[in-house]
Amino acid sequence: MSTDIEISQATPLEPIEKIAAKVGLTPDQIEPYGHTKAKITLPLKQHHQLGKLILVTSINPTPAGEGKSTVLIGLGDGLNRLGHKTVLALREPSLGPVMGLKGGATGGGHAQVVPMEDINLHFTGDMHALTEAHDTLAALIDNHIQQGNALHLDPRQIVWKRVLDINDRALRQTVIGLGGRTSGVPRQDGFDITVASELMAVLCLSEDLTDLKRRVNRILIGYNTDKQPVTVADLKVGGAITLLLKDAIKPNLVQTLEHNPAIIHGGPFANIAHGCNSVLATQTALQLGDYAVTEAGFGADLGGEKFMDIKTPVLGKTPDAVVLVATVRALKYNGGVKRADLETENLDALKTGSANLVRHIHSMQQYGVPVVVAINRFTSDTDAEVATLTKIVEDLGVAVATTTEWADGGAGAEALAAKVVTAANQPSTFRPLVPAGADIMTQMTAITQKIYGGARVELSGKAQRQLKKFAERGWDKLPVCMAKTQYSLTDDAHQLGAPKDFTIHVREFSPRLGAGFVVALTGNVLTMPGLPKHPAALDMDIDENGTITGLF
Amino acid sequence: MSTDIEISQATPLEPIEKIAAKVGLTPDQIEPYGHTKAKITLPLKQHHQLGKLILVTSINPTPAGEGKSTVLIGLGDGLNRLGHKTVLALREPSLGPVMGLKGGATGGGHAQVVPMEDINLHFTGDMHALTEAHDTLAALIDNHIQQGNALHLDPRQIVWKRVLDINDRALRQTVIGLGGRTSGVPRQDGFDITVASELMAVLCLSEDLTDLKRRVNRILIGYNTDKQPVTVADLKVGGAITLLLKDAIKPNLVQTLEHNPAIIHGGPFANIAHGCNSVLATQTALQLGDYAVTEAGFGADLGGEKFMDIKTPVLGKTPDAVVLVATVRALKYNGGVKRADLETENLDALKTGSANLVRHIHSMQQYGVPVVVAINRFTSDTDAEVATLTKIVEDLGVAVATTTEWADGGAGAEALAAKVVTAANQPSTFRPLVPAGADIMTQMTAITQKIYGGARVELSGKAQRQLKKFAERGWDKLPVCMAKTQYSLTDDAHQLGAPKDFTIHVREFSPRLGAGFVVALTGNVLTMPGLPKHPAALDMDIDENGTITGLF
Fold first, then answer.
1. Which positions 420-439 of A are in contact with B (Cβ < 8 Å)?
2. Residue range B325-332: average pLDDT?
3. How high does pLDDT run on average in chain A?
4. Of B91, B161, B329, B512, which one is the catalytic site residue?
5. Structural domain contains residue B529
6. Do B223 and B96 share a domain, yes or no?
7. Residues of B with CB below 8 A from A168's CB?
8. What is the pLDDT confidence band of residue A46, given thresholds at 50, 70 and 90?
9. Do A122 and B129 touch (CB under 8 A)?
10. Does residue B273 lie within any of the structural domains?
11. Does the active-site annotation cover B102?
12. Per-residue pLDDT, B2
């Protein structure tokens, strides 16, 4: 059996100008990066009617694998096969994890975006531009303190850390500024992975360069010795930081293995940020395609909810249909089956575990958008299991289709594509979860009850004190961005299925004024991953012709 | 008067395919990055006779400014104006300093390489790829220690630090691995600026991907608890690190303001590394042009010497002529004139300071290569000063020309170009400074006496002990790379002119086994710069159309 990278390398790619031409982009509307990648020049002058917006999300992720990106890519190819001009809008992968565990974020099998090596490695340099911009801001902060500290920044209250696009646990907690008076002011610091940078969220929510600069200027960098917030605007470096992102803000164009256009741009964490690709990328896909298929990170409780409540208001367009990806394996895992036993038929566990899928269906339906379930079929799934799961969904009156795009490419998602077209053309009315301007507590309670299926929200003493401060500072009605484990609907990663009557515990809040939301932290959220005992890097190689092995 | 960025922005650029075609490169031999930048696909299949190689170097740099890059670019345009197909090969600028002090590394006035904003910012991502590769290796080292430390690496003897392409003094000395057992093993660490990474030197000396991987594997990362050296090969990640540099190894093609081809690739420090652009870039320029004009960092005592002694043996081609750039201002500064008084005519100081130029002429002549002096004329230079300096050079029997490329572009360097053509076509025989295989002490003594004009080399106790160890390990006959202040021929930055009978003090050695040389450290070499009190970043901005101001 061929690996993903072998399938990818065996498929001749079309020149990117040809892919661009398929959606009416002329050579001067794109900026090539090599022969098979390009950035799309902004502002885009296309003004045809916006396409239909399809959001692909999933059940809670499990170690069994759901294949959300693979389904999304297959769906795009499937829609194109049915004659609907479709443009994908995906998130940009982070390079850090690539060196740790095998497996990229570019789909799999015969449903991939290509060139997959480049997309998973440096791509068009967006992540590196974000790293450079983020750390330049950090250097300017420490330099300000060193050079007289006119803003009276409190070195103990700098909230702007540093970042690298690397899994490097040894940088989580550091002491910097050692070495005497010419080498900075000593203080505690730490590094996050680049995708956790607020700048990534800012980039993904910006409408244009002007909006980007406005958001950058709003970013909270710390507090002064009077405990008052200090922003980038106070430091007067918003222009310089924005300038470093002048190319990163432009969406990237590549192709699927079936030579359909895919935009890959922006990839903020779906826990401490909103987990959706850029507003500009999705807008571009909507302007170029009759259908734009996009995704959100982790499950419908995290990325899905944030797409609806954080991204949609900025995007100015609500989804016309939601695709919920589930697998028999993952639902059996949710039903209590151990990882080693997932290939054995188990209808009872499947029925029990399906509660997780049902919960997510109900969650998404509350937004007033039609839901279609995609069962991403694995070879070990039995016919009885697939039939059982299909019936569970159909009994709810929800459309469902089985997909096999991993083995069959877009042909394996044509049935799903047909159901998505039907759903997206139904009359529907988007309903926000809470009215605009609701306070943070109201928002969190609504999310807990209506999306997670829980009962209540409890605040730590610190979180309570923060909310009071936020009210004084006018931050109390910003959208809330929940930072919660992706593995459970609750804030405890081990509670699978669809728990009820539980409490969400909010430990603390983190204001992300540039992104325009407040992160509510439940439990510990790791913002700098580590490498495993046998990192994938040990098995990678490149030969004299530049052919890569061991990457995926 | 227009600024550099205004002149650059006012000049319409030609499409990079057109620039490539001027030197016979077809569209499939380049990989475009936008419309005016490209990488050249390797291996290059051109096999015409190699062009003439012109090395541009200078007197010791002073705060008065020499304009070496500007002369180089003007010379290239001048040669092209005279009908000689000429390709430039320049170093790639570092982004870190751009945020600190105004002024890029892309020439000035009407002698610039463009698009200057892009070249000075992220360009084609080479620096970022190096940062990522360097820090990925660092993360893999700390992960190895964390995950059982099978190689018994001594955390107190890790020589592989971390890097960022940012001026950030607060990262010079850090403590990492804090936060308990899941967050690494605490140890002292620090960050250098990316151009100081050994990987930059490795990239610049590699002949191809295979050589790059061989060099990466040789890199010394630290010592084990038995004090034995440990390399990248021992860690088994040479393939992964090389793979991250697969695009960075390809030379970048841009154009001058006069639309002549310029290759800009690689830029290692000229003190702790060899300070020359990549071997692949220079080879490519030689394969594409009848003349290849290249440069080396700082003055002839640093970059010039290293070009001859470190780069030339790898390049397999010796220079056909050396251009030594000098200015009246810088020589007056060397003659004792204060910075504020440089615009006042002072023939005596000029004569005294010219000793610096004469020393560098003699140094370069020892390699058996014809020398041409370029007097880069500033508006404040008087006719008498220029005539005096011209006579000093002519009296040595050395060719000399005055240039005004800053004001006049290539037309201002035609006289220089004509003299360079004459010199490069003289019969000449390259003579190395010392025979291949000479030991480190012999090399250092020869450099001190024949290049710096000094008398002797003194080793610290530590350096003496290191040399003994190196002999045991077979490192004692590697080429030596002197790390010395660029401001003086001695190891004391304040001794201007051409001191005599001085001692060079070697504090310690740093083996760079991947690059293939041993760095001899004299005095303190700062490998992570800081930002000034008023960083240039404070004056930068970008408007809604992406137009940049305040960058230069």
1. none
2. 97
3. 95
4. B91
5. no
6. no
7. 135, 138-139, 142-143
8. low
9. yes
10. yes
11. yes
12. 82
pLDDT tens, position by position, A513-529: 999 999 999 988 889 99
Task: Tally the residues of chain B.
Answer: 552
Report the pLDDT averaged over residues B299-304.
Answer: 96
Residue A508 has pLDDT above 70, yes or no: yes
Do A252 and A363 lie in a common domain? yes
B531 shares contact with chain A (CB less than 8 Å): yes
Residue B63 tokens read as: 């705060």
Q: DSSP letters of A118-185?
A: HHHTTTTSHHHHHHHHHHHHHHHHHHHHHTT-TT-EEEEEE---EEESS--GGGSSEEES-SSGGG--
Q: What gap in Å lies between CA A246 and CA A244, rounded to an integer? A: 6
Compare CB distances from B170 to A32, A184, A531 and report the shortest one's residue. A184
- Residue B68 appears among annotated catalytic residues: yes
Predicted confidence (pLDDT) per residue in A313-326, tens digit:
999 999 999 999 99
Tokens of A212: 């980007």
A69 annotated as ligand-binding: yes
Domain residue limits at A184: 127-244
Give tens-digit pLDDT for B215-246. Answer: 999 999 999 999 999 999 999 999 999 999 99
The answer to whether position B229 is within a domain reads yes
Confidence class for position B290, pLDDT limits 50, 70, 90: very high
Q: Which of A171, A189, A170, A95 is nearest to B145 (CA)?
A: A170
Say whether residue A122 is in contact with chain B using an 8 A CB cutoff: yes
- Transcribe B33-91 into DSSP letters: BSSS-EEEPSS----SPP-EEEEEEES---TT---HHHHHHHHHHHHHHTT--EEEEEP
Chain B closest-CA separation from residue A15 CA (Å): 11
Its ipTM equals 0.96
Contact check, Cβ <8 Å, A129/B122: yes
Q: Which of B220, B244, B268 is the last residue of a domain?
A: B244
Q: Write the CATH number for B159.
A: 3.30.1510.10
Tens digit of each residue's pLDDT (9 = 90 or more) over B456-512: 999 999 999 999 999 999 999 999 999 999 999 999 999 999 999 999 999 999 999
Q: Is B70 a catalytic residue?
A: yes
| B244 and chain A in contact, CB less than 8 A | yes
For chain B, say whether A537 makes contact (Cβ under 8 Å): yes
Residue A322 class from Cβ within 10 Å (0-12 exposed, 13-18 middle, 19+ buried)? buried
**Boundary residue ending a domain (B361, B394, B425):** B425
pLDDT over 90 at A9, yes or no: no
pLDDT in tens, B89-113: 999 999 999 998 866 679 999 999 9
The amino acid at residue A46 is Q
Judge whether A63 is annotated as a binding position.
yes
Cα separation, B455 vs B443, whole angstroms:
13
Catalytic-labelled residue, pool B37, B39, B52, B68: B68
Q: Do A551 and B243 touch (CB under 8 A)?
A: yes
Q: Are residues A69 and A144 in the same domain?
A: no
Closest approach of B338 to chain A, Cα-based (Å): 26
Mutation target vs B (from A9, A117, A164, A167; most B CBs, 10 A cutoff): A164
Asked whether residue B134 carries a pLDDT value surpassing 90, the answer given is yes
**Whether pLDDT at A48 is above 80:** no
Q: Give a yes or no: residue A276 inside a domain.
A: yes
Query: Is B144 in the same domain as B100?
Result: no
Answer yes or no: do B387 and B489 share one domain: no
Peptide bond preceding B43: is omega within 30 degrees of 0, i.e. cis?
yes
In this structure, which amino acid lies at residue A11?
A: T
Which of A178, A246, A532 lies closest to B175 in CB terms? A178
Contact A7, A109 (CB under 8 A): yes
Q: How many domains are contained in chain B?
A: 3
Q: Which residues contact A490 (CB under 8 A, 6 or more apart)?
A: A452, A454, A499, A502, A504
Q: Note whether B548 contacts A246, CB cutoff 8 Å.
A: yes
pLDDT in the model for residue B6: 87
Q: Which residues are bridge partners to A296 per DSSP?
A: A276
